[in-house]
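Bit of a strange request maybe. I'm writing a small parser for structure token strings and I need a real example to test against, not something I typed by hand. Could someone generate the tokens for this chain?
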Amino acid sequence: MINPIDKLAFALRIPPPGDALLETIGRRTAQPRITPVCDGTDGDTFWIIAQHGRSADYILNIEANPRVRVKGSLTRTGWRSGTAHILDNDDPSERVRILSRSNRWLSLCLQASGSVATNPLSVRVDLDPRP
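Reply from user aminoacidic:
Good idea to test on real output. This should exercise your parser:
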């Protein structure tokens, strides 16, 4: 239920602090798919904790095509392209702990989304250099 609210907030240019949008390409449709995630921007890296692991549609899309775009609420830099890497050997709990230290809004987002986690999985997006 929160996804439509997040999408609307971004469309109105008042994104919730700590939230971001992830754009993947649909594995069956080849159409852009937008999913709200926590704003894990860290310089030229964007971190995602997929709360439902490999069963999340956007993870399945990343497996088919790792090229993505992200738009964070904390950086206000607009859309940035990058390549996503699913990190099976990363500890999502430790990643949440590390990311939560950087920003209280991100910490709140991670806590809220973590409350529904079934099989967390870390994803690192290496963002393309800025022009």
